[in-house]
């Protein structure tokens, strides 16, 4: 038998997520293959579960520099080697997916994992899946609106009658299998779009907010708009949950963390932000990005604790997820960062938030 895990009773969940990048190591020039990367993702999830983290997420891409195109398949493998950690997509590109097939896959994952599956539905920052699956970018917004409507109906009903523009209609269709949970938790993935956040609120689904840089205060109006629209639509406050995702990396000291992570973070930007203004990050840029008033979670455990708690004061969110394997960071370093996050950051954050809730 494995060691007993102390359950989180704070109401605030902590976890990690990955997109499974396949980038050239800036030191060695080598690129690991998809098999090794997927094996490392499974091992990271097992480590997170053993250490008592609450959530593990996997994102979806359809290109050769990412290892994961089917999150539910990989999450099902992870379900077999973990016991209690929640297994989520981060995110599912709903605009180019068939909601019926997607729901069936995650309902199956829910059964395999004994009720641990969740979906984060988004429109996708990368656009390759539109041409790959036969969709037009001209329908970018309409696709998501129609498909989230269908997905939520599938989640609520065993038999569905539905008609839309982008797929065949359903007439009393049997939707199987049914998940173990009463309904699979669905979150709407949002970047900086207040309109998308307001839609999530009107739908009464969780808001998964990507806060990847800059002053986190910029995102406070987005969270407020989400809750405002949710309440206006008649949803109870308890249903309007907020999760925050951010880039992060930990070492015992701030200087060590910055020294280790900087080459990989610049590697990430050079690879994926070629058309952006910040594709070439200087050390001075990086120092600004990791400063106390910015959203990049790189440093010592204490620095990460302070940043998470500052964001909690701004957003009052229920979940924080960190992406720690950015830019080709070797797995042994990622594993150490996860361990510090689970053992030195998560317990303190949960304790402080629980303490604050009791005072209220």
From TrEMBL:
Database matches in SUPFAM superfamilies: Bacterial luciferase-like
Luciferase-like domain boundaries: 14-314
Record flagged with keyword Oxidoreductase: yes
Superkingdom classification of source: Bacteria
Keyword terms: Monooxygenase, Oxidoreductase
A GO term, aspect molecular function: monooxygenase activity
Cellular component GO terms held in the UniProt record: cytosol
Name under which the protein is recorded: LLM class flavin-dependent oxidoreductase
InterPro entries to which the protein is assigned, alphabetical: Bact_Lucif_Oxidored, Luciferase-like_dom, Luciferase-like_sf
UniProt keyword Oxidoreductase present: yes
Organism: Bacillus salipaludis
């Amino acid at each position: 038998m494995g060691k007993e895990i102390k359950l989180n009773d704070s109401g605030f969940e902590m976890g990690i997520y990955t997109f499974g990048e396949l980038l050239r190591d800036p030191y060695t020039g080598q690129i690991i293959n998809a098999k090794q990367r997927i094996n490392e993702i499974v091992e990271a999830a097992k480590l997170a579960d053993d250490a008592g983290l609450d959530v593990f997420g996997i994102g979806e891409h359809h290109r050769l520099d990412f290892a994961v195109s089917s999150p539910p398949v990989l999450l099902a493998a992870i379900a077999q080697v973990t016991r209690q950690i929640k297994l989520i997509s981060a995110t599912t590109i709903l605009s180019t997916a068939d909601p019926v097939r997607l729901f069936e896959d995650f309902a199956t994952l829910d059964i395999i994992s004994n009720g641990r599956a969740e979906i984060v539905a988004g429109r996708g920052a990368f656009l390759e899946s539109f041409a790959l699956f036969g969709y037009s970018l001209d329908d970018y917004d309409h696709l998501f609106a129609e498909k989230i409507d269908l997905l939520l109906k599938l989640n609520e009903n065993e038999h569905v009658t539905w008609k839309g523009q982008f797929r065949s209609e359903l007439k009393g269709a049997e939707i199987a299998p049914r998940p173990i949970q009463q309904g699979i938790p669905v979150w709407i993935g949002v970047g900086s779009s207040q309109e998308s956040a307001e839609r999530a609120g009107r739908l009464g689904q969780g808001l998964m907010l990507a806060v990847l840089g800059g002053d986190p205060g910029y995102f406070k109006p987005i969270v407020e708009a989400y809750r405002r629209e949710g309440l206006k639509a008649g949803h109870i406050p308890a249903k309007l949950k907020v999760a925050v995702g951010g880039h992060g990396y930990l070492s015992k000291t701030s200087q060590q963390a910055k020294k280790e992570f900087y080459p990989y973070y610049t590697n990430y930007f050079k690879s994926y932000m070629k058309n952006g203004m910040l594709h070439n990050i200087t050390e001075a840029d990086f120092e600004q990005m990791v400063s106390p008033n910015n959203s990049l979670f790189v440093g010592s455990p204490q620095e990460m604790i302070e940043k998470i708690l500052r964001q909690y004061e701004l957003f009052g969110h229920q979940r924080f997820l960190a992406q720690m394997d950015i830019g080709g960071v070797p797995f042994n370093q990622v594993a150490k960062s996860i361990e510090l996050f689970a053992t030195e950051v998560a317990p303190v954050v949960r304790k402080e938030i629980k303490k604050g809730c009791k005072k209220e």
